Amino acid sequence: MAAIAKKLADQLKSKEFRExxxxxxxxGPVANWGIPxxxxxxxxxxxxxxxxxxxxxxxxxxxxxxxxAWKVQPQNLLLFACHFTNEGAQLTQGxxxxxxxxxxGKENGPEEKGKQAS
Length: 118
What we know:
Largest sheet: none
Shape: elongated
Radius of gyration: 21 Å
Number of helices: 7
Number of strands: 0
C-alpha cells in the first residue's frame, strides 16, 4: 500500500502533471462544469422558468464539444465528461419544458392538483 501511495505522490509531483494543471486541457473543462452544475441545480425549479431555445442551444453545444473532446489529440476526457453530463442535464430540462408547455404539465401543476383535491 505504501508503494502505491509513493507512486501516486511521485506522479502528482511530476513535471507532466504540473504542465497538465497549467494547461487549457485542464482549466477549460473545470470552468465549463458551471453549466451542468447549474442545470442540475435547476431540475427542481418551476419548469415555467426554462427557456426552450436556450436548452436546445446548450444541447447542440454539448454535442459538438463532446465530439471535439473525443477527436482532439490527446483526447480531453475531462471536457468530454463535462459535456456528457451537461447533455443529460439539458435533455432532462428539455423534457420538463416539453411536458410543461405541450403535454399538459401546466394544467396538472401543483396549484391545479390542489384545486382538484378540494
